[in-house]
């Protein structure tokens, strides 16, 4: 039997997301101020172009360290902000970093060219040949420009996730090369022992955060829990549920609505990590994920053998009851986005309405479970079927099904197009943004 613990919404407390977001902004602002102070203290012994270029380079290095923090997958920020939003911030900060690096290179080259009366190209070659660390900086910038190019939406859509991810890993090489350039050629953080200690401390913290969040925590948890597949249950021709168990799962800090990056350690799948949400609330004895066939990788899940070792990274995501602000809840799910909703429905208290949007009745994953669970909890379940056009979750439709929608927390999970449309509808209905919690279910897209 599943044991659930009631989690009442914090009616007057400061929202966890606001606290974490403000903390990140304050951290970045404080470091910008510190870097600026050290830069001014080091003095301006060059022309205006070189001074501007150096300052742009320092801010670029600071953003690079901030980038590492955003993707470190630290539980404190992930549970409050969510990996999808942190990844989005990482993307936009990355483009800002790219432009700062371009400005750094252009201003530095033209500044030295102005002082030496050389042409920009000759000056760049001369700097690469005579100044330690400059060649490494050029290679780092080239790598970051490649990563930035493949991260543009038009290129991202044409690349397989594994290809994009492999190219993205070169960012770490760029980070190492850029840092060694700063140490070799920088003057701001060699002007004083305090500045030098700060710079090493900043980068040590950023790299340490990545090591802890991406290596130490996942490896430690998997060594402790020793996860294995205990059952493989076909739910339909295209949907399968995988049950995973292990040791001391009551100590695993997983919550309904979160997901893991799952690696099933078979000969042909150990190198693939796929994000799947928990489709049942964790009960301390087992975890369940439910996947719909979307390619050869997910199709192979139904052939997993009981006893297969599992390496799971997580839990991740802020799509949990931690962020509730109202006693009653509306859940809006589309397609396989029902899986985290199924888990949330199990954990939620108060009056719950679940709207499940699918094309046909046969597409309704776990519908029998949902019906039974909704009956047990006194929740309302609405199955909305039909093609995507016309929109059946327009303002009038949702207002008819849930007249008090503006007084509820609303959780939305489904394909990106549906999620965007529902979020627009909720805005039209006057639902406050603090009450809207969305999961776009597109991490691996």
TrEMBL record:
Q: Which InterPro entries match?
A: FAD-bd_FR_type, Fe3_Rdtase_TM_dom, FNR_nucleotide-bd, MRET, OxRdtase_FAD/NAD-bd, Riboflavin_synthase-like_b-brl
**Gene3D superfamilies, from UniProt?**
Nucleotide-binding domain of ferredoxin-NADP reductase (FNR) module, Translation factors
Q: Which PROSITE patterns match?
A: FAD_FR
Q: How does it sit in the membrane?
A: Multi-pass membrane protein
Please give the GO cellular component terms listed in this UniProt entry: membrane
Pfam families, per the entry: Ferric_reduct, NAD_binding_1
Which cofactors does it use? Answer: FAD
Keyword Zinc annotated: no
Query: What is this protein identified as?
Result: Oxidoreductase
- Which lineage is the organism of this entry classified under, starting from the top rank? Bacteria, Bacillati, Actinomycetota, Actinomycetes, Kitasatosporales
